[in-house]
Amino acid sequence: MFKLACGDVMPGCAARFEHADRDQLLAQVAGHAAETHGITDITPPVLALVESKLAFVA
Ligand SMILES: [Zn+2]
C-alpha cells in the first residue's frame, strides 16, 4: 500500500491518501491538489516533492 499525508507536502492539510497502485495514488493526489489547493500544474519539482513523501507500507 502506498500512502501519502498531504500535510507532509502542504502544511496544515489533513488529507491522507492510500492506494495499492502508485500511479492511482498520484492521480488521487493530483485531483486533491487541484480541487483543494488550486495546484493544477504538477511540475517536476512538485512531483519530486510528493514522491519523496510517499511511503510504502506492505
Ligand atoms: Zn491537501
Give a structural overview.
Pfam families: DUF1059 (PF06348). It comes from Nocardioides lianchengensis. InterPro entries: DUF1059 (IPR009409). This is Small metal-binding protein. By secondary structure, the chain is an alpha+beta fold. It has one domain. Helix content is 45%, strand content 17%. It has two helices and three strands. Strands 2-1-3 form a three-stranded antiparallel beta sheet, covered by helices on one side. It is globular. The termini are close together. The mean pLDDT is 95. The structure holds zinc ion. Zinc ion binds next to helix 1.
Mean pLDDT over the full residue set = 95
Q: Low-confidence runs (pLDDT<50, min 5 residues)? A: none
Strand residue percentage:
15-25%
Task: Write the H/E string, N to C.
Answer: EEHHE
Heterogens: zinc ion
Q: Assembly type of the shown chains?
A: single chain
Query: What is the domain total for the residues?
Result: 1
Q: What is the 3D form? A: globular
How many helix segments? 2
Provide the helix percentage.
40-55%
Question: Helices and strands: which structural class?
Answer: alpha+beta
- Measured between the Cα atoms of the first and last residue, the distance is 6 Å
Which strand order spans the largest sheet, edge to edge or round the barrel? Answer: 2-1-3
Largest sheet: 3 strands, antiparallel
* Rg calc: 10 Å
Protein name: Small metal-binding protein
Organism: Nocardioides lianchengensis
Pfam families: DUF1059
What layout of secondary structure does this protein have?
Layout: E1 2-5, E2 16-19, H1 22-37, H2 44-53, E3 55-56
Antiparallel strand pairs: 1-2, 1-3
Bound molecules: zinc ion (ZN).
